[in-house]
Amino acid sequence: MPSGGAAARSMGIRACSTLTKAASLAAALLLVGCTVTQPAGTREQGTALYTETTMSSGVAGTEKATVGQEWWFALPVPHNTSREAIKITRAEVVSVPKGLEVSGYGAFEIADTGGVYFLSNAADSASPRFAKLENHIDRPVEVRPRQSSKIYYLARLRVTGPVDDNIRDCRYEYEQGSRLYTQTLNCEAEIRIRAPQRGR
User: Fold this and answer.
1) How far is residue 113's CA from residue 140's CA, in Å, rounded to a whole number?
2) What is the spatial distance between Cα 21 and Cα 56, in angstroms, rounded to a whole number?
3) Which of 14, 32, 105, 147 lies 20 to 30 A from 156 at CA?
């Protein structure tokens, strides 16, 4: 039978072991509690896309539009600055002034259009025949790490009346790994109605 001192030591060891297990369990629960999970359907503010492009700092424009015409406006070409690939799932213009409406979107290979057309009249024979090209708008577009996309996005704009303000801001939604992001880039286009000619 153990002596009083040995029994005390034995009880101390068991108590210490129990406390150690409890502390380990508490630490594990704390780590689980600190793990950040993204709620389903929510998007974080992204930073993967490069923001200082020519298309995001300049203004495309025309003063020769007429009511009923449709114009293709190019959003900034996505450039992935991160170390992980992204998949773009949506692109859109944010602010559309009165007198214009978005009639659709397109996503086309830059090689197929012979370069990036910032603003082009859909009926102009010098413009790409977008309607005859493969449109990737309904499927994700992957952009590899630290590279520009080979596909660019355009909004098809219909002129419905006098326009007094500019189109502004272009928003992308994309996936990176298991997380969802949204990011708005500067973009701007000035479309104005052709002034009527005065009779002589």
Assistant:
1) 20
2) 57
3) 147
Distance of CA 151 to the CA centre of its chain: 14
On whether the CB atoms of residues 69 and 121 are closer than 8 A, the answer is yes
Q: Global pTM?
A: 0.77
Tell me which DSSP letter residue 84 carries. S
Cα 84 to Cα 91: distance, rounded to the nearest angstrom: 20
Strand 100-109: give its sheet, edge to edge: 100-109, 151-159, 70-74, 119-121
What is the residue type of 111?
Answer: A
Task: Please compute the mean of the pLDDT values over residues 141-159 and round it to a whole number.
Answer: 97
Q: Where are the domains of the chain?
A: 1-34, 44-193
Span 24-38, pLDDT tens digits: 544 444 444 444 566
User: Spelled out in words, what is the top-level CATH class assigned to the domain 44-193?
Assistant: mainly beta
CA atoms of 92 and 75, how far apart (whole Å) = 8
Asked whether the beta carbons of 74 and 126 are under 8 A apart, the reply is no
Report which residue type is found at 89.
T
pLDDT at 11 over 50: no
